[in-house]
Design goal:
By secondary structure, the protein is of the alpha/beta class. It has eleven helices and 14 strands. The chain has a single domain, classed as TIM Barrel. It binds NADP nicotinamide-adenine-dinucleotide phosphate. NADP nicotinamide-adenine-dinucleotide phosphate binds next to strand 14.
Length: 312
């Protein structure tokens, strides 16, 4: 199957057009500079112009090497959409104080070698957050033109609602962990009111909340299982049934198992932007192919069950 044109969507309630697949930049230090130039150039040329960073990826190195390699591709800045995150002080604490957010964004802009960020996300909820401080920081960043759009990551609905009460700019995005295997937000919707593990509410109906308020869900680690335990595709020891079904559907739709795992995410009617963390062009192509197939309803459910979930 050949790569087709990249599908796009609006980011949250904005009119910013973004590709359905974002390029995750957390693992970019695995590439040499030449490989990185080739990878970024291939992504942009194939419609993948949205890059997801964070100030902590590679201790800041991912943003720095990206900027250097991007410059070498010769593409103009306005051709790409840069998203980054702040708010985590690694291994120490979370910090949403105004000064910390402003200082973090200065660092991000410097490392990415740009005047503005298209999207800034708060990386993980800070229990000590004063929403008025965040609002003041966002106002300053917006008014100075340093950040154009805002969102959050790993927030539950009430945390979003609390912050949005004070922040003027619409929160467009919630970036969350989501894959066929790590799909508790789906299970809790099926197993409502049941005495089963799937009924445990981990994130407060976040997927329904995001749909209700037209926010985009960005999915991190779409091919991983557990708490950073690894990739489920091809892992027959832990996921024999799931890999049987992935293989069967890969043959049926004439794509690879990775494309099927991506298609499972795209089939959900929430406005989902998949953040792919691969560093390989061939793998990214498989994921693009996955965005171009529409899984049958029965196949979507079959994959869900094969991943070890249940329907009551
Ligand atoms: N907001 C947050 O808290 C948060 C947390 C984590 C990540 N993120 C973001 O989400 C992005 C994606 O996260 P991730 O890298 O964990 O996601 P991922 O796309 O699920 O995983 C990519 C990794 O899996 C490997 N892999 C091996 N076999 C694979 C297969 N068959 N299909 C796909 N990948 C395979 C890739 O290797 P190859 O390079 O060899 O393909 C790569 O190392 C990150 O880059 C980052 O931007 C956000």
């Amino acid at each position: 199957m050949k790569t087709k044109q990249m599908k796009t969507m609006e980011l949250g309630t904005s009119n910013l057009q973004v590709p359905r697949i974002a390029v995750g930049c957390m693992r970019l230090t695995e590439l040499s500079e030449d490989q990185l130039v080739e990878y970024i150039n291939w992504c942009i040329t194939n419609g993948l112009n949205f890059f997801d960073h964070a100030d902590i990826y590679g201790g800041g190195a991912c943003e720095t090497i990206f900027a250097k390699a991007f410059k070498k591709t010769g593409h103009p800045r306005k051709e790409i959409i840069l998203q980054s995150k702040c708010g985590i002080v690694p291994g120490v604490m979370y910090d949403f104080d105004k000064d910390y957010i402003l200082k973090s964004v200065e660092g991000i802009l410097q490392r990415l070698d740009t005047d503005y960020l298209d999207v800034l996300l708060l990386h993980r909820p800070d229990a000590l957050m004063d929403p008025k401080e965040v609002a003041a920081a966002f106002d300053e960043l917006y008014e100075s033109g340093k950040v154009r759009h805002f969102g959050v990551s790993n927030f539950n609905p009430m945390q979003i609602a609390l912050l949005q009460k004070y922040v003027k700019q619409p929160l467009l995005v919630d970036q969350l962990q989501f894959s066929i295997v790590n799909s508790w937000m789906i299970s809790e919707g099926f197993e409502v009111n049941m005495p089963t593990d799937g009924a445990i509410m981990r994130d407060g109906s976040v997927i329904e909340y995001l749909r209700l308020y037209d926010m985009t869900m960005q999915t991190w680690s779409p091919f991983q299982y557990g708490d950073w335990e690894g990739v489920f595709i091809g892992n027959r020891e832990k996921f024999p049934e799931l890999n049987d079904v992935l293989d069967e559907l890969a043959a049926k739709y004439d794509v690879t198992p990775t494309a099927i795992a991506a298609a499972w995410i795209f089939r959900h009617p929430a406005s989902i932007q998949l953040i792919a963390g691969t560093t390989k062009i061939s793998r990214m192509q498989e994921i693009i192919n996955g965005s171009n197939i529409n899984l049958d309803r029965a196949d979507w459910y079959k994959l869900y069950m094969a991943a070890g979930h249940r329907l009551p």
